[in-house]
Structures are given as structure tokens and as C-alpha cells.
Amino acid sequence: MFAVFCGTICGIITSGYPISVVASIAVAVLSITNNLICTTSDGLKVDCHLCGKPIPTQSVNSILEQNLNQQLFKCVPINSAFEAAISGFSSDIPWLVFSAFHIGKAVQVTQLGHRAAFFLISYLDSSLLGIGYSICGAELLLSPFIPSNTARGGGIVFPVVKSIIDLIKLPEEESGPVYAYLTMIGGHSNSITSSLFVTSMAGNPLVASTAEKVFGIKYSFTTWAKGCFVPGLFVLLVVPLIANHIYKPKFDTTLIRQEIVLQKSSLGPLSIKEWKLILILALCLVLWAGSSIFKIGSTIVAFSAILSLLLLDILVWNDIASNSAAWDTFYWLSIFFAFANQLSELGISAFIGKTLSFILEGTSPIVALVALSTVYYFSTYMFSSTTSHIVALVGPFMSAAKELNCNPFLFTAVISSFSTISACLAPYCCGCLAIYASLPYVKQNEWFYAGILSAGAHFLIFTVVGIPWYWAIGWL
């Protein structure tokens, strides 16, 4: 399983085939070879190659009891393996991504996104760097209130970024760097802001609760912000700089000022559809921000929003059916989500934690912290969801850190930040990045290149800014 997963990642980077094609090949190989964990009809988890075979007996009495009625594992080879390989389609995160695509579609077709873009640009100077920081600012303002980074980035900020791109009309040879620059800032800023508050991402409370269980510490909203906000803010500030370094976009935003004025006048007052959409988005914001109060998951909120868009005639079914980017991303993200679950069920995650504590035995707590956090950061390559990354590895890594006498508050702060900012490594590492990656402006290898550059910047900032900050607050 692990070998096929690594081969899939290499195939995505080097083959030139779409991610969905490479992921489909992996599904076929794993299903035919039964290299997965299957779930039997009576709820047992077994290696798929054992499906249909006798359940091993443990004693002479059990052998005698089974002589009359031989017990078999209640699953079918290959068929059950295929079901395991596509189990991600029933997970909520891919559906949240799928729903966010269509919310974004509604923002575009009603031209509400254009209005937001006009408002955004009107407060900027004549530079692409200013637009880049405005995108980061939008994510920052929304991050404490929306506990779904995919809903925040894909459903709200992404349509605005797309609208800004639509306003910038340049020859093809000049537009590429500009569009790619804005796309990358949108995706990476979402991952960074997801680390700043415990309420910024659905998986963050899992980190806090695990820290309480493993270390016996109280990691509250204020403690999280104390540990993550300052270094995270500096990380956010370098996002436009990295994108600018990669693409070196050239565009004078004053060139679109007149176009903005003309389009503003042509749009006229808010239409009925726009008011309906504003109401739906406002309700989504309230329900997402108050998910702990209303006990309604982010996915069902987003899915209900799609239904409302259809019933209120904001979208028609053909808008949903023809949104190929939504269907394509939903397809491959579901497959990767299943793969992530399989890696956890196969014990690869737990094995990593135990191995690391054994290898690092005898090292100083600081050296152990640096080593553990570095491996944790780059282990993100194995996951297509920040939540699944947290669920699979935070526990083992915190247990290893406790055995190695790492400072519990410092280690939790670093792991809390790295859980989400590490998603910048690859376009499949979180749902919102997958949405931005569906746009044709950033090539797949460029996402990975930007991820490596970002990783270097992240570690540099946590060294230059993080060390003095953690020393100042008494965690170092």
C-alpha cells in the first residue's frame, strides 16, 4: 500500500497525466492485488487477501465448534478491496469541497464576486502585491469565525480571487504569471490562516484535546493564539513574496480602474438573485461560525446551501452538472482520502511515532522537538486532508515528544502550526488547495516547487521569529 501511494505521488509529479487518471490507476492496482484493509459485513477489519478465507481458530474447542459450520471472513476478494479503495466518496470532506465549488459558481454567475472584487481593489494601491495582501487579509479576518478552511477558502475567498482574475485581461503570454500568482496566494493563504486560531480549522480542536490527554495541559483558545499567531502572521506575510519570486508578474492595476468604473455602473443595483445569495452566504457564515452551538457540520451546511441555490433559482441543475472542475476534484480527492485512512488503519502512522521515539532516545528535548516537528511537517505528503493528518499522527508524535521530555506547550504550538501550514507542500494536501489547483493557471510541478520554497521559509521564520517569541512567553 505504502509503495503504491509513493508511486502515485511520483506519477502525479512526473507523468503529465491528470491527478484523477493516476489515482484511478492506483485504485485498480490496490484492488486487484488486495493490498488494502477491508471491512467485513459483520464489521471486522481484515487484510483484503483474507476475504472469504477461514477465520483462524485459537483452540481445540473452537476447532470442534467450527467443524459443523466453518466461519469465514465475510468479504469478497478484489470486490471488497475496491469498496475500500473508494470509501472516501462517503467521507464528508470531499463533499464539502464539492459543495464549495458550487457556492463559488453561484458567486460568479450572479456577479456578486465581481462586486466584491471591485470593493477589494478600490482600497488598494496600483500593485499586484497589494492585491495579494488583500487576499491574505480577507482570509485572516474570516479565519477566527469559520471553522472550515475549505468552506472559508473555497466558498468565500476563492470566488473573489477568481473574479479578480476575470477582470485582468491580458495577452496569453502575459496573463499566465499574473493568474498563477493570484491563484497560489489564494491557496497558500488559506492554509496559513488555518493555523492561527483553534477555531480556524475543524481539526484544530483535535490537536488541543490530544495535548490535554497526552501532556495533561489546558490548551485553550487564548493559549493557541499565544503559541501560533505571531509566527503564523509572519508566515502569512511572506506568501505574496514567494509567489512574486516564482512568477514575477507584471501588471499595473491602474489599467483596470476604468474597467472597474464601467463594470460597476453596468451592474447597477443588487439583483434579487444577489440578495438571495447574500442571505444564503450569511446563513452559511453564521452556521459555520457557530457549529459548536448549532451542532451542524460544515459539510451539511454547504450541501444545504447548494440545495437552496437550486430551489431559489440562483443556479440551475445544468450549472451543477457542467461544473467539471468540481466533479474532477471530488473524484480524486475522495480517492486520496480513502488512501489516507488506509495508511492509518495499516498502522503506518503509529509505526512512525514509535520508531521516532526509539531513534531519538537520548537526544536533548530541543533536538527531539526539531526532529519530530520536521518529520511531522513533511509527513503531510502522505495525506490529502489536514484533519486526517492530525487524526493519524498527532497522537503518536505527542506521545514520542512526552517520552523525550519536550516542552508540552512549545511542542503543541509547533505541531498546531505545522498541521495546517504544511499543506502548502502539495495541491492535494487539503481541500481548499485542491480547489485552487483545479484552475488551469498553476502547473502541478509549480505547486510542488512552491511547496518546497514555502517549507524553507516556514522553518526560517519559526527559527528567526519563533525562538525569540517562545522565549519571551516562557515556553523556551
Helix content range of the residues, please?
Answer: over 70%
Could you state the order of secondary-structure elements as H and E? HHEEHHHHHHHHHHHHHHHHHHHHH
Radius of gyration: 24 Å
Main β sheet profile: 2 strands, antiparallel
With strands numbered from the N-terminus, the spatial order across the biggest sheet is 1-2
Please describe what this structure looks like.
The protein has 476 residues and is mostly helical. The chain folds into three domains: 72 residues, no CATH class; 220 residues, no CATH class; 139 residues, no CATH class. Strands 1-2 form a two-stranded antiparallel ribbon. Strand 1 and strand 2 form a beta hairpin. Helix 2 runs antiparallel to helix 4, helix 11 crosses helix 21 and helix 20 runs antiparallel to helix 21. The chain is globular, with a radius of gyration of 24 Å. The relative contact order is 0.14. The mean pLDDT is 86.
